[in-house]
Amino acid sequence: MILRFLKKSWAVILLLLLWQIGVMTTNYNSIVVVSPLSVLQDLTMHAPVYIVPALWTTGFALGGLLLGMLAGLVLAVICWTSKILSGLLQSSALLLTATPIVCLIPILARLFGYQSRTELLTVAIMTFFPSFVYAGSGLRRLPQRSQELFAALHASRWKRLVLLALPAAVPELAVALRVGTAYSILVTVVAEFLMQTGGLGDMFAVTMQQFNLHRALGASVIAMALSTALYEASSALEKRVRLRFA
Amino acid sequence: MRYAERNNGGVQRALYQACGFLLLLAAWQIAGKAGMGGKTLPALSDVLRVYTIGWRRALLLRAAVTTVSSAGIGLLLGAALGCVTALTAQLLPVLEPGLDRLAVVVNALPAIALGPVLIITVGREATPALLAAIPVFFLIYVAATSGLQSADQRLGQFFKASGASWWTRFLYLDAISALPALLNGMKLAVTTAMIGAVVGEWFGAPTGLGIVILNTMQNFQIPLMWAAVLVVAGISLTGYGVIGLLQSAVERRMA
Amino acid sequence: MSTIELKDVSKEFRINRERSVLALSAMDLTIREGEFVALLGPSGCGKSTILHLVAGLDEPSTGTVTVDGLPPRQLQAKQQLGIAFQEHALLPWRTVEGNLELPFQIAGRTSDREHIAGLIELVGLKGFESARPSQLSGGMRQRVSIARALCLNPKLLLLDEPFGALDAVTRRFMNLELQRIWQEKQITTILVTHTVEEAIFLADRVLVMSGRPGRIIRELQVPFPRPRAVETMRQELFHQLVDDLTLSLEP
Ligand SMILES: Nc1ncnc2c1ncn2[C@@H]1O[C@H](COP(=O)(O)OP(=O)(O)OP(=O)(O)O)[C@@H](O)[C@H]1O
Ligand SMILES: [Mg+2]
Asked: I need a labelling partner for A56 at 20 to 30 A (CA). Which of A210, B75, C26, C235 fits?
């Protein structure tokens, strides 16, 4: 049990250790640079303060993720049915990836209001693209000779979609989910930080202004832990899906 | 005949894509002119006019050079670190679970928390590059790891049966099979590096596109702000396209 | 039910801008309804190509292919085509049973569970109903693929080296079973194989093709009466025919 934990976390522990030593040996202003031990102390002493913001952030991150994934899949299926639509939509989608969405958060906030729905929208836009791209390539990555088989049986378009293309896309969708979860918490936190709509990002902003650095870093540590946990969960899911589908 | 058909399809597809692009721009222009986004969404023509004004063009160009060099350094640094880490994990499988988690945790460091710390420790100029390097490192680590494992199992067995050394196998099989996945990762990493550099500049870099976006936002110079955003998008798109071309060349060679 | 006619068929594949491969040239072939034809020929001579043309999966470069006087696509539309590919082409995410249900689902019919169970038993995979293709051996996958070809009681059966990965004993057993099924239903069948014995044992007529571009260089009407038993293979005449055909396969 402990051994397994060490096997997975030795590098992270090493990183924290280096940080601790770095803080102790140099003498940077302790208002900005804090040691991991003192952050840990605040986390354990005042754990209840973190609960609501953490739940808030998780909720929005997952909600936005779901929305973005769904939109990406639907659009990919639409593209799958028509070459014209596929061509028309692809360039727009490409433009959307190349656009730094995070830089657009201030603009989105202006357009849609400094509200939680903007937060949801930002996460959805960020996760939409991986879903669209991976679903698109998954719908086309079919098992060897399966297209000929379906042709020989004169399968309808609908049957090809439901029985062949969609199941074939499942592994790639799992990849999209993993990539999306890697962003979801981070983007939610940045959006909350900029718009101050509640959650861990908001907590960070407020405590930073009060120079309560321990609490601020505590909030980021929670965000990191959430992000890591979600990512590892989705990775595990992807592995299982791969086994099942290959 | 088949070849001709495929070629034709490619031309047609490019045509549709161009049409889609133009449609998007037209929609923007109309939405902006109709004032659908209030003052925050100017018409495309108003944004493009910014580029015709000499001193503004010079400002954007100077800022772009700074941001691109930060993003470039971040991209190279992150990619190199990612590849080295992935190779380490491949060579010493015991370390792999730990390195996996390290990559995820490092990627999960919120920029808002890391930014101020970096400003103090490494300075204003280096912060954007480092903030760009972190997500790039993660992307490349993931891409390289999965790429290194993507070699056909039967081929792997063949190499083993032929008594190939680790090095030969790596050189002739693993490294080559990893290329498509690696390039795919690089493609996404370009945008990520640009975002990292822009966000890194928000924490107080002296110049750069991120600073332009931040200042124009506060001074309500909306067309100039969009012009800066478009420059960022254009640079990312160019990088994406160049690596995409490389990738399709490699994939065609390997298909 | 199904008479197959190839008239002056040739097929050219483009490799790239400059090069192309002539896989078939000037093929004339008629297969009677209910006939069992075996195709022999060196690797790369266009045997799979012929099957693909007859199945309507590919168009000939010149000439025409008809089934009962109609283009092969008509047969597809009626879902009367059973085909087992050289590569097994099973859906990796479905179990053995699921893969056999697939043709029913594509045709929009309710799957005939009894029929499926019978087919699984026939190909000797009882107990593996819920195994997925990655958990099966190469030969087992081939057997699933043959069972799948038989699912919808086709009028035309196209088999591309279906027993290639099987051991001699299973192969012989499958040969006997295939003959039994064929005799019950008299399905027009084209079998591509590399084994001369198998061709002679199963077919009414054996066609030998030349190397690329593929052309028919030899035709043999198999004289043995049906049903043929294992003893048929021990006859002097059988051995003579095998030697004879093997000789004509040599370039
Ligand atoms: N899709 C294709 N594109 C290009 N060339 C092809 C294609 N399909 C087949 N060929 C070519 O046509 C020729 C005949 O191929 P075919 O698959 O019919 O051979 P075969 O007789 O089935 O061989 P084998 O016994 O090895 O299966 C080969 O030389 C091959 O290179
Ligand atoms: Mg073949």
From this structure: A210
